[in-house]
Design a protein that fits this description.
The chain is built from 2 helices and 12 strands; from the N terminus they run H-H-E-E-E-E-E-E-E-E-E-E-E-E. By secondary structure, the chain is of the alpha+beta class. A 5-stranded antiparallel beta sheet has the order 6-7-3-10-11, with no helix packed on it. A 4-stranded antiparallel beta sheet has the order 1-2-8-5. Strands 4-9-12 form a 3-stranded antiparallel beta sheet, with no helix packed on it. The longest helix is centred in the first third of the chain and has 19 residues. The termini are far apart. It holds the Pfam family DsbD_N. Keywords: Plasmid, Signal. One of its GO terms (molecular function) is protein-disulfide reductase activity.
C-alpha cells in the first residue's frame, strides 16, 4: 500500500512540475532559454568534454535534469561529473531539489574512438523568482577529435 501511495504522490508531483512548464513567449518578462542558460562546450582531452553553463541572475538549472548522448555509436558517454549543488524544498515537487545558479561546469567522459562527435546536451531550469520552469533545453555541439587523430 505504501508503494502505491508513494508512486501516486510522485506522479502527482511530476504532473505539477509539468503544469509549471510554460511557453516562454507567454511571459514577456522572462528571458529566452538561450539568454537564461548560455552553454558552451570544449574538449578537455581525448576522453573529456566540458560544458559550461552560464545562468542568468534569478534563474537556476536542476542538477538531476541534465542528460548527454552522442550521435556516434563508436563514441559513448561513459560518465558525467557534476559539482556540488545547492538544495532547497520545491513546493511543486514536494521534495528537496538540487540546483545550480550563476555558473556550472559539467564534465562528460567519453569512451570509444577519438574522433569528431556530436554531443547532445539536455538541461532543465526555471526562473526561480517567478516560479516558471522551462521545457527541457537541448543543444548539440560538434566536438573535434584531439590532436587531429581520427579513430
Amino acid at each position: 500500500m505504501k508503494t502505491q501511495r508513494r508512486a501516486f504522490i510522485h506522479s502527482v508531483a511530476a504532473a505539477c512540475l509539468a503544469a509549471f512548464c510554460v511557453s516562454v513567449q507567454a511571459e514577456p518578462d522572462l528571458l529566452q532559454p538561450d539568454e537564461a542558460f548560455r552553454v558552451s562546450a570544449r574538449r578537455v582531452d581525448a576522453r573529456v568534454v566540458e560544458l559550461e553553463y552560464i545562468i542568468a541572475p534569478g534563474y537556476h538549472l536542476y542538477r538531476d535534469r541534465f542528460s548527454f548522448k552522442t550521435d556516434n555509436p563508436a563514441v559513448k558517454v561513459a560518465g558525467v561529473e557534476l559539482p556540488p549543488s545547492l538544495e532547497k524544498f520545491d513546493k511543486a515537487m514536494g521534495q528537496n531539489m538540487r540546483y545550480y545558479t550563476e555558473r556550472v561546469a559539467v564534465r562528460v567522459r567519453l569512451a570509444g574512438a577519438n574522433q569528431t562527435v556530436k554531443l547532445v546536451a539536455t538541461a532543465q531550469g526555471c526562473a526561480a523568482i517567478v516560479g516558471v520552469c522551462y521545457a527541457p533545453i537541448t543543444k548539440a555541439f560538434s566536438v573535434p577529435a584531439m590532436g587531429g587523430k581520427q579513430g
